[in-house]
## 1
Amino acid sequence: MLQKFSSLDADVIIAGAGPVGLALALDLGRQGVSVIVLDAETGGPDARPNKRANAINTRAMEYMRRLGLSPQIHAFVASEPYLVRDVAFVTSLTGHELTRFVDAFESSPEPPESGLSPEEYLRIDQDDIAIMLRREIGRLGNVTIREAWRLDGLTNGDASVTVEAQGILSGERASLRAAYLIGADGGASTVRRQAGIGFDGEGGRGNNVNITFVSPEIDAANRHPEAAMFWIVNPRLNGFAGGNFRTWRLTLFAVSEEDEAQVRANPQPHIDELAGRPVAAEVVSIDRWTAHHLVARNYRAGRVFIAGDAAHLHPPTGGLGMNTGLGDASNLGWKLGAVIRGWAGPALLDSYDAERRPHGARVVAQSNHQYNLRPVRYAAEDLLDRGPAGIAARAEAGRRIRDEKGTEFFSRGLVLGQTYRSDAIIGDGTALVNSEVIIYTPTAQPGARLPHCAIASGSIYDAISTDGLTLVTVGRQDSGAFAALARDAGIPLKIIEAAPEMAVVYGARFVLVRPDGHVAWRGDAVIAAADLRRTVGRDPGGSVQPAPVSGSASHE
Ligand SMILES: Cc1cc2nc3c(=O)[nH]c(=O)nc-3n(C[C@H](O)[C@H](O)[C@H](O)COP(=O)(O)OP(=O)(O)OC[C@H]3O[C@@H](n4cnc5c(N)ncnc54)[C@H](O)[C@@H]3O)c2cc1C
C-alpha cells in the first residue's frame, strides 16, 4: 500500500540529465508525475566537446515516437548528411578496402523485410537528442531541471527517499524528499554506490583514446565510397574512424598509458596513418574512455532505481550503450507513473530489475565480445604487400572480418527481439523465440515486443495507450468481458483491432500490451482476473487501489 505523501518536493527525483535521465523525466512528466532532475554538468549538452553516441537504434526510436519526439528527430536527421550506414574495413583511407557491411546496424544483412517498425536506425549525436528532450521538458510545468546541482547523499527510507544536493556554482545546499529516486547519473553513479548496489564483472578492460579533428584534406583524400565508419586494418593502427563528417573521430583501441601520453603530445602520425599519407588536420580534442564489462547486481534498492550507464557499462562496440539505457527508461517510466498514479501496484516495480537486468547483461557480454575482436587481429603481415601475397592476405582478412564482426553491425535480433520474463508477464509455455543477435523473428509470445503492423489509423504503435493497458483483438472479437474486468480492477484499458491476417504472427485472438509495447499476456478467451492484476503488480484478489495523494504532483 502506498503511503500518502503530504510534504514531498516531488514524486520522483532523477539524478543525471544525460539522455536516460531526460527521457525518464519527459516520460514521467507527461504522465502527470512531478519530477526534479539534478544534473552535475555545468555547461549543458551543447557545451560538451567529446562526442559519444552518434546513432539511435530502431527500438530506442520507437520510444522516442511514444514520447512524441520522432518527427523532430527525423527532421533534424534529414537536414544532416548522415544517411549512409555502411561500415567499411580498409587498410587506410587511401588504401585497399577489405570488406564492407552494407546498410549496417540492426538492418538485416538479407534483403530488408518491410514493416518491422515504423521507425529506423538514425545517425544523430546523443547531445542533439538531449537538446530536443530538454526542449520538450521545458514545455511541462511539473518537471524542473536543476542545472549544476550534484546529488551528494541519499537516505533510502520506507516511505520516501531524501536526497542531499549541492549547487556546484552557488555552493548552496538542499535536502529534497521524493517518493522515488532514479540514478541516471552515469558510470560513476553516486546513487548506485550510496544505495549499496555493487557491480558484477570486470572493470578497466582497456584504455582507449579518441582523437577528434577537422581536416578538409582528409575528406578530399578519402578514396572509398562513403561509410558511417572506416575500420583501419593495418599493423600500425588499431582503431576506427567515423563521426559526423564535419569533425572526424579516430578511436585508438587498447592504448597503454605511455602510448596515450605520446598520442596526446603528437596525434598527427595517427591521423596520417588513417589517411595513408600526410594530411593537415586541426585537432579539436583528445579524450579517453575505458572498456568495462560491468552489470549492476540489482537495478533497484528499496525506493531507489538505477538506469543507463549507472546500471551497465560496456565498450561502445555495436553502439548499444545509450540505446540500452533508453530501453531501461522505456521500461521504468510507465511503471513508476502507473504506481504513483494508482492504477498499478508497487510489486510491479520489482519487474524492472527482472526484465531489464538480463538484457543489460546480454548487451554487456555482446559488446565486450566485439571489443575483443579489434582490427589489429586481422592485420596480417602481408596485408600491405603489393604482389599476390598481399592480394591473398587481404581476401583472407575480408573473409575473417565478415565471419566474426557480423554480430556487431547486424543486431536486429538483440535489439528488436528483447523478450522479458517476470512476475508481470503471464507466460504461455512457449519456448523463447528470439535468442540470436542477428536474426529477429516477429512473435507476440508474452514478454516480447509486439510485432508491428499497420491498422486503419496508421501504425499500431501509435494506437497503444501510454496511460494504461491495451487489448489488441485480432480481427473483430467480443472484448466486453475484458472491459468489465479492467473496470472492476481500476485498470485503464484501451481496445484496438488488428487485421485478421495478424493471427499467424500474434498467435492468439487477444494480445494484452503494456505502454512500453511489450506483450503482458495473450490468449483466445478472456484473461483470468488474477492474471490481469498480476500484469500491473496488483494483489491477485485485492480491491481497487486509490491513487495516492502527492504533495506536488497534479494527478488526473
Ligand atoms: C566513445 C563513445 C562512443 C559511444 N557511442 C555510442 C553509440 O554509438 N551508441 C550508443 O548507444 N551509445 C554509445 N556510447 C555510450 C553512451 O554515450 C552512454 O551509454 C550514454 O551517454 C549513457 O547515458 P546516461 O544518461 O545513462 O549517462 P550519461 O550520459 O553519462 O549522463 C549522466 C549525467 O549524470 C550527471 N551526473 C553524474 N553524477 C551526478 C550526481 N552525483 N548528481 C547529479 N548529476 C550527476 C552527469 O553530469 C551527466 O550529465 C558511447 C560512449 C563512448 C564513450
## 2
Amino acid sequence: MKVLLASPRGFCAGVNMAIDSLELALKAFGPPLYVYHEIVHNKYVVTHFREKGVVFVDHLHEVPEGATLLFSAHGVSPEVRQAARDRKLMAIDATCPLVTKVHLEAIKYAKQGYTIFLIGHEGHDEVVGTMGEAPEAIVLVETPEDVATLEVADESKVAYLTQTTLSVDDATRIIRKLRERFPQIASPPKDDICYATQNRQEAVSLLCDEADLVLVLGSQNSSNSQRLAELARERGISAHLIDGASDIQPEWLEGVQTVLVTAGASAPEVVVEECLDLLRDHHGATVEVRTTREEHVAFPLPKELRAVVLE
Ligand code: SF4
C-alpha cells in the first residue's frame, strides 16, 4: 500500500494561535480557565485541554464572575463580548484574524445600508458570531436554491460575505446565482474563504484522483474537514472523516493500493502520525509526502497575552 500524505494539511495559523493562547493562558492564570465554545472543533484538542482544567461553556452564565475566559478561534458576537464585560470576566480574544476580517466587512456594509447575504452553515459558531455584528442587515444563504427566494428592499444595495471554511466550489455556485440575480452585488476585494481552507481543498482536488481511498483527520463538527471529505466523494473517491486511527475500519482498506491522507485545519499532527503508524505497521504502507503549496502564515497572540509573554 502507498500513502500519499497531503501537504499542506492540519493546523492553520488561526488554530496555532488559538491553541498557543490557551496553553499560555493556562500557564499564566492556572485552571480553571473558561473557553467560550470549543477552542477549535477537534475532539483530541478539546479532551487534551479538558484534562488540564479547561472548562468549555456554551453560555456565559456558566462562568463565575471575575473568571478568565477565552474566546475561541471562531469569534463571537458583540452581545457575547458585552455579556463578558457585564460579568467582569477577564476576556482573552483568540478569534482568528481572518474571521475578524469578515466581521469588519459585515460592520462596514451594514453601516452603509447594505443587505448582506452571508454564505454559510446555519448554527456554525463562526456564522453565529458574524451574524451578531449586524443581525438586522444579514441574511444567511446556505444553498444556490436559497437565492431565488431572497427578498430585499433595495436590490441595488446588496453585498455578500462568506464563512471562512466553506467548500470553494459550493461557494462559487452560490455566488454565481447571486450575481445572476443581483448584477450590482458588492463583495470584499479579497476572498473570505481563508487561505488554509483553500490550500487544503486544493491539495485534495489535485491528489485524490491518484488514490482509491481518502482519509481526512478531523472531527465531525469541523466544517473545513467535512468539506475535504465531501470534495473527494464528489470526485467519486471513497472518503472518510476520522478523529484518529482507531476509527479506521479494516474493510475500508480491502483491495486499496493508494490512500490519500490529509487533515482539516483543526486536526493535530499527532493523530495523523498515529494513522500513518497503523497503515505502516498493519498494511505495510510506504509514505510519500506530496506538497501542493507552501504555507508561511503566522498570527500574533491576542493583545491580552502579549503582556504576559513579556513579563
Ligand atoms: S481555518 Fe482559516 S479562518 Fe479558521 S482559524 Fe484557520 S486560518 Fe483562521
